[in-house]
Design brief:
Elements lengths: L1 E5 L1 E4 L6 E2 L1 H15 L3 H8 L4 H8 L5 H17 L5 E2 L3 H7 L5 E4 L4 H11 L6 E3 L12 H10 L6 E5 L2 H9 L3 E5 L10 E3 L5 E6 L2 E6 L1
Parallel strand pairs: 2-5, 2-7, 5-6, 7-8, 8-9
Antiparallel strand pairs: 1-11, 3-4, 10-11
């Protein structure tokens, strides 16, 4: 069993707390077809990033204004279409176990999408949520994680991040934080610890904070 001591936990949403794969791949698959971009290329870029930044990578000739406008429409659809959105095993229990300790969700989704997906999955939304509206740059930029740590009043080195994507893990690393990788793909990005799902994580009191017992 691995043990990680921390004072705050920062949690990604998609792929970490909720499984929205079915919705994301359907809507972005439609987007790929409309713009004649290979579906595989789209799916390799979008995870962990804000939609307009993914669009900028995939359609570099387009203006930022066009990307922002289309992303706004995409976010509305994503928030409305939650069929197939489910909890990652153990997510609701983990968020409840963290209730006595500083914790936050840090996501590239906007507020309405966060609430829609967490509600559909039955996972409590933490009091502190750093969403797309909160930052100027999305993952792999560390801004979101650093902002969450600042608002919680905890040093970055005392935070542990739960993430599933390459860009999310890169953002946590850039913020100087330890990372628990969630899901099969996360193991490829060298997190400090790795779990198939959150049922493998236990939160216990320890010193001035808490410890994660993993395994």
């Amino acid at each position: 069993m691995e043990r990680i001591e921390a004072r705050a936990a920062l949690l990604d949403m998609d792929g970490t707390l909720v499984d929205s794969t079915a919705v994301v791949e359907r809507l972005w698959g439609e987007w790929a077809a409309r713009h004649e971009v290979p579906r595989e290329s789209v799916l390799s870029v979008i995870h962990g990033r804000q939609g307009h930044e993914s669009m900028a990578i995939l359609l570099p000739e387009r203006s930022a204004e066009e990307n922002l406008a289309e992303n706004a429409r995409m976010l509305e659809r994503e928030a409305a279409e939650t069929d197939g959105v489910v909890e990652i095993a153990g997510a609701a229990a983990l968020v409840e176990a963290l209730a006595p300790y500083p914790h936050a969700v840090v996501t590239s989704a906007d507020g309405p999408l966060l609430r829609a997906r967490m509600g559909a999955a039955g996972v409590r939304v933490p009091e502190l949520a750093v969403t797309a509206e909160s930052v100027g740059a999305s993952k792999p930029d560390p801004e979101g994680f650093l902002l969450a740590a600042e608002r919680l009043g905890v040093a970055p080195a005392e935070c542990v991040v739960f993430e599933d994507s390459s860009v999310g893990i890169a953002a946590a690393r850039a913020a100087g934080m330890r990372v628990v990788g969630v899901g099969a793909a996360a193991a490829r990005y060298a997190p400090d610890a790795h779990v198939a799902d959150l049922a493998a994580v236990r939160v216990v009191p320890s010193g001035a904070g808490f410890a994660l017992e993993i395994g």
